[in-house]
What does this fold into?
Amino acid sequence: MTDLTEQPTHEPQGRPPGVERGGHGSVLTYLTGLGFAIVLTLASFWAAGTHLVWQPAVPVLLAALAVGQMGVHVVFFFNIGSGPDSTNNFLALAFGVFVVGLVVFGSLLIMANLDANMMPSMDQLMKMQR
It folds into this structure.
């Protein structure tokens, strides 16, 4: 017969690196994340300032480095992993990103509409009268 009160000895899967059961990372985890963030930031500045990368590909490279930077922040600083403990945190993060994206996209749409419907400037009015 097995004892049901024994705790499993293996660590549950899906937890971010260095995160204990309480949900906070260790100092080593934060320093590792800081190191990755610094390297990705320096790589972004290098990619924007060098001529070694094909110039039309620079925005794509910067976008890829930005996505990597977001991944580092989510895993190492927000402590969100793929385990069931992080489901609510991930959904809250996804909702926050959705709301921010909606606000930014809506603001750009409104500003573009205002720009299209704006009255011409005084110089253009003077040219139209001549």
Observations:
- The mean pLDDT is 85.
- The longest helix spans residues 87-116.
